[in-house]
Backbone:
């Protein structure tokens, strides 16, 4: 994939407030890229900087190797779909979609076929004559998408486009958006504060905190190898145990509270890890309760159930393990014939050193 958007040393101040701090970022042509982070971290600002709605206080924004400093939003190869999908309720669906073409100079017949093509892309073929105000939330979102796509931008910028939809509809539209992005092949940049949404949809994700990019990786790497505790905690759940690094090299030797001594490959620790205290991260689904007679394939420890939260498909247990200061959370899939343990039950848990992340 070729590089499409390059941000180099981008800073943005609102008065004294430093909203973007030295952002360096390359987005490739045709990728589904997400900006993920907590409220106020600067995701929307970054998107608006790419679109040209906000100027930068320092650094450069390049699109297709062209410096965008003096290029206004309407002359950039980008188009934005907003959080509150601003469609015109008094117009028809087709008129809403055609709105994007008002300055295109196309004749009536060409406009009509472009509208129909855009509507069919978003699964609304034949809806052109309907009144926009009579659409459901999901359909309105599709109309907003069609209106943005009809201009054939190189980059579609999506600012929390699904946040107004209920959970079921949002999950449905996530899949539709992925399909749409693959079908049209243009670059999508999505702003979201929803980690699951970002993991499901993206080729790569930039996780932002306080105006900075904390980590930029593909979903699996972000989840399995978070580079900091704050990334680990923002993306999913993670248990942290106190431990010590007692030897370094191609393998790292760890002494973990309650779990004892184990070796892990160096990739599971930060680059240049040094001897001494470390936080040991373990995801809840990489731990397991051992039921009657089950044996751990790697290691096990005795535990007492402290709390049980039943989710239907899953049960989350908090368990206490001797010498581990905090209870550990374990996510177990509920299976036929597998009981749900009670609080206070004595059990054994399995852990696997390959699932450890050292911080
Ligand atoms: P959210 O998910 O809540 O929309 P965000 O990550 O998109 O958050 P931004 O909207 O980019 O965050 O805002 C980043 C910071 O900059 C916030 O603290 C916000 O209050 C501030 N900010 C944004 N726009 C302006 C503005 N026009 N003037 C002053 N401050 C602003």
Residues:
């Amino acid at each position: 994939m070729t590089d499409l958007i390059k941000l180099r040393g981008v800073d943005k101040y609102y008065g004294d407030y430093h909203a973007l701090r030295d952002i360096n970022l390359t987005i490739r042509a045709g990728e589904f890229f997400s900006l993920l982070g907590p409220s106020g971290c600067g995701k929307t600002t970054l998107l608006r900087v790419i679109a040209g709605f906000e100027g930068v206080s320092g650094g450069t924004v390049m699109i297709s190797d062209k410096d965008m400093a003096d290029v206004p939003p309407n002359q950039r190869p980008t188009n934005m779909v907003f959080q509150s999908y601003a469609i015109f309720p008094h117009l028809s669906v087709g008129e809403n979609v055609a709105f994007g073409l008002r300055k295109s100079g196309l004749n009536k017949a060409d406009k009509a076929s472009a509208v129909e093509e855009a509507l069919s892309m978003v699964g609304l073929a034949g809806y052109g004559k309907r009144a926009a105000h009579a659409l459901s939330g999901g359909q309105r979102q599709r109309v907003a998408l069609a209106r943005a796509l009809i201009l054939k931008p190189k980059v579609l910028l999506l600012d929390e486009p699904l946040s107004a939809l209920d959970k079921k509809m949002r999950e449905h539209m996530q899949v539709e958006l992925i399909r749409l992005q693959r079908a049209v092949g243009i670059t999508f940049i999505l702003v979201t504060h929803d980690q699951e949404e970002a993991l499901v949809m993206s080729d790569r994700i930039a996780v932002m905190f306080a105006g900075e990019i904390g980590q930029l990786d593909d979903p699996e790497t972000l989840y399995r190898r978070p580079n900091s505790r704050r990334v680990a905690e923002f993306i999913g759940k993670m248990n942290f145990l106190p431990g010590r690094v007692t030897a370094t090299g191609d393998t790292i030797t760890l002494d973990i509270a309650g779990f004892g001594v184990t070796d892990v490959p160096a990739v599971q620790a930060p680059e240049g890890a040094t001897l001494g205290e470390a936080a040991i991260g373990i995801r809840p689904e990489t731990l397991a309760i051992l039921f009657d007679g089950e044996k751990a394939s790697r290691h096990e420890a005795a535990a007492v159930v402290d709390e049980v939260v039943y989710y239907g498909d899953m049960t989350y247990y908090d368990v206490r393990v001797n010498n581990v200061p905090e209870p550990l959370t374990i996510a177990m899939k509920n299976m036929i014939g597998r009981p749900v343990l009670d609080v206070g039950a004595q059990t054994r848990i399995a852990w696997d050193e390959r699932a450890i992340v050292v911080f």
Q: What stands out?
A: Helices lie at 43-51, 93-98, 108-121, 137-149, 167-184, 195-201, 219-224, 229-234. The first helix runs from residue 43 to 51. Residues 132 and 170 are 20 Å apart (CA to CA). The longest strand covers residues 3-14.
